[in-house]
């Protein structure tokens, strides 16, 4: 195992897309940012120097960060932001994970442009559990706004209205040639006839779940979120923001050019979304300049295809989980509305402002210290910053997936509430979608952990009948689960990583609105002493 050193200089750069030049925040002037490549077992030392005009932090999405919580990155959770002119060095090891993860800014909406791939190959002499000839560069799906994404969310936060949807979807930062004024902004991948390649997909979009398809070619899924799956052949893959999927493709079609295309899966009824199609071109190197073949993508509301895909993924290995758990938690997830006074003049539906919550708590980040630092400094300090009374169950039970439930039942309450987990406990969480404002598929992500997905379904979770559906034998392991629209998903993990770990919807607009909570995992030693003291360069607020 090696130590790999990188420097990310966060800086503004001018980038032109759709014939509009815009100043965006980048890492090292690159958009998307640099790919980080490691072998399993390597450690990473990444010095982040902030030469931009915004505060920033970097999060290593999906990296377990075993006892390295100071390097996880979400602002005000594990660290204060790196201010302009300052720097911070992230130090961690990537172990027991192979495949594709990524890194992104975890501060306001900066991850719209500050993100990159993290490729984890098996260590020397360890084979992949499948055969292929070579790899295509990671394919990062994203969104492009014709205005500064920070201004988009600042405006929405001020007015309480929904933020503007993006103006284009992107692949490796390029919209592709189906947009006006975009033929120069198309990624082309050269492939060799007869070869089987490994393709790594990352959904780095802020607010859009995506269908992805390659014209004329099937894809065989072999991994997701840096965990191997049993091979699964499909013509379309589905990724929520935060998720990755590794697939094998055999280029066995007549030599030519084929579009790889991605389009939104928009599960919320009546909510506007970016309905454009982004493309890249897979080129066999044939001289023909005929237009590329176009794949058929599912309709934007094709939930059946999403379910067929997600329920077809299983762990490559048998894991055999026990049926008993130590913590049996039930969290509702959803978007709601805050009441506003006439004087506040809110821009949301009927003079309200948008809010989102888990178990009716709309998460509020501290602003003077990070949660982890507050806890490390001792309970006295922590007491003023957060409380540990996040509810294990909804405080008010109602028909979660019915339409038009009384707003009195679900008025979200702002708070900085954590749920305390004993070190080593077996934790199960039922994530129950709600239909309060609109039912929607929520990609729920946990920091510091991978989890098994035991089951998913529609309607209200019913322990009496749904427990029988749990896959305890070979459940897929991920760091982000799509909770079905007006449905539920059940996840399981062992609380073996001490620290403060954020759990949130990876639709950025929802985390902005409060669809988050955090776990405080004790270390069995007392007050997280096993984490070690905060690094000397940890930013102060
Ligand atoms: Cu990919 Cu909290 O983030």
From TrEMBL:
It catalyses: 4 hydroquinone + O2 = 4 benzosemiquinone + 2 H2O. Binds 4 Cu cations per monomer. The keyword Signal applies. Its cofactor is Cu cation. It is found in: Secreted, Extracellular space, Apoplast. Keywords: Apoplast, Copper, Lignin degradation, Metal-binding, Oxidoreductase, Repeat, Secreted, Signal. InterPro entries: Cu-oxidase-like_N (IPR011707), Cu-oxidase_2nd (IPR001117), Cu-oxidase_C (IPR011706), Cu-oxidase_fam (IPR045087), Cu_oxidase_CS (IPR033138), Cu_oxidase_Cu_BS (IPR002355), Cupredoxin (IPR008972), CuRO_1_LCC (IPR034288). One of its GO terms (cellular component) is apoplast. Residues 10-124, 137-286, 390-523 form the Plastocyanin-like domain. Its EC number is 1.10.3.2. Its main location: secreted. Pfam families: Cu-oxidase, Cu-oxidase_2, Cu-oxidase_3. One of its GO terms (biological process) is lignin catabolic process. One of its GO terms (molecular function) is hydroquinone:oxygen oxidoreductase activity. Lignin degradation and detoxification of lignin-derived products. Belongs to the multicopper oxidase family. This is Laccase. It comes from Lolium multiflorum (Italian ryegrass). The lineage of its organism: Eukaryota, Viridiplantae, Streptophyta, Embryophyta, Tracheophyta.
């Amino acid at each position: 195992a090696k130590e790999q050193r990188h420097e990310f200089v966060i800086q503004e750069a001018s980038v032109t897309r759709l014939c509009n030049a815009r100043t965006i925040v980048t890492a090292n002037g690159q958009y998307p940012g640099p790919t980080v490549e490691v072998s399993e077992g390597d450690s990473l030392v990444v010095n982040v120097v902030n030469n931009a005009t915004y505060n920033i932090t970097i999060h290593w999405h999906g990296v377990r960060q075993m006892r390295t919580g100071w390097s996880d990155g979400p602002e005000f959770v594990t660290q204060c932001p790196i201010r302009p002119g300052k720097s911070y060095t992230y130090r961690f090891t990537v172990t027991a994970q192979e495949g594709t993860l990524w890194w992104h800014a975890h501060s306001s909406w900066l991850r719209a442009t500050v993100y990159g791939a993290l490729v984890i190959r098996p260590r020397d002499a360890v084979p992949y559990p499948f055969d292929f000839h070579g790899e295509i560069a990671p394919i990062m799906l994203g969104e492009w706004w014709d205005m500064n994404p920070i201004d988009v969310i600042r405006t929405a936060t001020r007015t309480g209205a929904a933020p503007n949807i993006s103006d284009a979807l992107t692949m490796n930062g390029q919209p592709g040639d189906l947009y006006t004024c975009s033929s120069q902004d198309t990624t082309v991948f050269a492939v060799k006839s007869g070869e089987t390649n490994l393709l790594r997909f990352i959904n780095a979009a802020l607010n859009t779940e995506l269908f992805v398809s390659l014209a004329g070619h099937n894809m065989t899924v072999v991994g997701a979120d840096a965990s191997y799956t049993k091979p699964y052949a499909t013509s379309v893959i589905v990724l929520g923001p935060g998720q990755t999927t590794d697939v094998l493709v055999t280029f066995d079609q007549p030599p030519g050019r084929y579009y790889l295309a991605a389009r939104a899966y928009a599960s919320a009824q009546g909510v506007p979304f970016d309905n454009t199609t982004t493309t890249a071109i897979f080129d066999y190197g044939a001289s023909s300049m005929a237009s590329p073949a176009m794949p058929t993508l599912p309709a934007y509301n094709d939930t059946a295809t999403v379910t067929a895909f997600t329920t077809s993924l299983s762990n490559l290995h048998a894991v055999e989980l026990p049926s008993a758990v130590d913590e049996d938690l039930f969290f509702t997830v959803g978007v709601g509305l805050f009441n506003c006074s006439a004087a506040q003049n809110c821009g949301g539906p009927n003079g309200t402002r948008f809010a989102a919550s888990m178990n009716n708590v709309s998460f509020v980040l501290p602003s003077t210290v990070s949660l982890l630092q507050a806890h490390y400094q001792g309970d006295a300090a922590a007491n003023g910053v957060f409380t540990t009374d996040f509810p294990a169950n909804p405080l008010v039970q109602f028909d979660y997936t019915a339409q038009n439930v009384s707003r009195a039942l679900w008025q979200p309450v702002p708070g900085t509430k954590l749920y305390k987990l004993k070190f080593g406990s077996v934790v199960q969480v039922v994530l129950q979608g709600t239909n309060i404002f609109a039912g929607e598929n929520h990609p729920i992500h946990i920091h510091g952990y991978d989890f098994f997905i035991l089951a998913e379904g529609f309607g209200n979770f019913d322990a009496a009948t749904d427990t029988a559906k749990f896959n305890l034998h070979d459940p897929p392991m991920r760091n982000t689960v799509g909770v079905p629209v007006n449905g539920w998903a059940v996840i399981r993990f062992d609380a073996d990583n001490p620290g403060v770990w954020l759990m949130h919807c990876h639709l950025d607009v929802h985390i902005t609105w409060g669809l988050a909570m955090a776990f405080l995992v004790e270390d069995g030693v007392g007050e997280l002493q096993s984490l070690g003291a905060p690094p000397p360069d940890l930013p102060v607020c």
